[in-house]
Amino acid sequence: MTGTEKDSAAASEKLGRSSGSMRLALVLNSDSGTLRTCEPSAGEEIADIFRQAGHDVTLHWKAGKEAIAAIEAAFADAAYDTVIIGGGDGSVSFAASQAYQNGKVLGILPLGTMNLFARALGVPLDMHEAAKVLAAGEVSRVDIAEVNGRLFVHHVTLGLHPKMIRLRQELDYGSRFGKLMASAKALRLALRRPPIIRARLSLADEEIDVETAALVVSNGPLGDGHLPYADDPCAETLGIYFATSRKWTDLLELAAAFALGRMSDNPILSMRRSQAVTISMQRAEARASVDGEVVTLRPPLKIRQYPRGLTVLAPAGDVAKDVSAQ
User: Fold this and answer.
1) Domain residue limits, the chain
2) What is the pLDDT of residues 138-168, one digit of tens each?
3) 3-state secondary structure string, the chain?
4) Start and end of every DAGKc domain (predicted)?
């Protein structure tokens, strides 16, 4: 199915359809933060929650690359109509691309450090509570986006953020707290020599030449008052942000603003909305973070959104509102 066909199908499908009885694969990444110290019996506990709700469940308890392979195989397997994955933002991003490409339902158990897309969907952060909510959840359609053919659910960033991730990868950490501390140290190192991104942003009705240390394109505008994720996963627009200062003190303040959800009316941040943006640069390659994974992309970066193109299992009724403040 082409992107246009998927857009049309998404627009015609109503939100809030009951999940009914599902034939689901439950793929748990045992290397993810929450499960790292757990035995496989923890996976059976989660599977039993879905079975008790009347669903047919096959559990796949896998680590690392085996978990990624299991996710891909589950989405390709005609035996399943729904795939629930437990992992961090990287696993979720890959699973979302597979769900989109195979036309299946994606459910998320947030087992990583940030769990940004799960938060956007209103999924509880406790593993068992999340399973209970999804077992009684509704099938919904939410936005998904792509950059140069690569799908993403949260962000594409250039400049400071991918540099910070690369520096963090060089540090040792073995826990969620350790990762947060490593992130803080990596940010401090990155700010010693902030990167410079010179680019032209081509939107539907505007072209902007920027010289910035930080450029962010999010799948939906980021909300205020919480970690950087979209308040509305069906916003049907990208959020495009770039820093207007390259002073390290301003960039440190901006990093804190993103972490704490203080983007609105920020004097050192410019923001636009559009369903598509092309980022042109005078360079052969650009290092970017796509949903937290640092990759090399070839400019121009062509980013577009598929409104309501991804089918997900989400909390039913008002449950999403109750947990969205987590």
Assistant:
1) 20-136, 151-306
2) 999 999 999 999 999 999 999 999 999 999 9
3) CCHHHHHHHHHHCCCCEECCCCEEEEEEECCCHHHCCCCCHHHHHHHHHHHHCCCEEEEEEECHHHHHHHHHHHHHCCCCCEEEEEECHHHHHHHHHHHHHHCCEEEEEECCCCCHHHHHHCCCCCHHHHHHHHHCCEEEEEEEEEECCEEECCEEEEEHHHHHHHHHHCCCCCCHHHHHHHHHHHHHHHHCCCCCEEEEEECCCCEEEEEECEEEEECCCECCCCCCCECCCCCCCEEEEEECCCCHHHHHHHHHHHHHCCCCCCCCEEEEEECEEEEECCCCCEEEEECCEEEEECCCEEEEEEEEEEEEEECCCCHHHHHCCC
4) 19-151
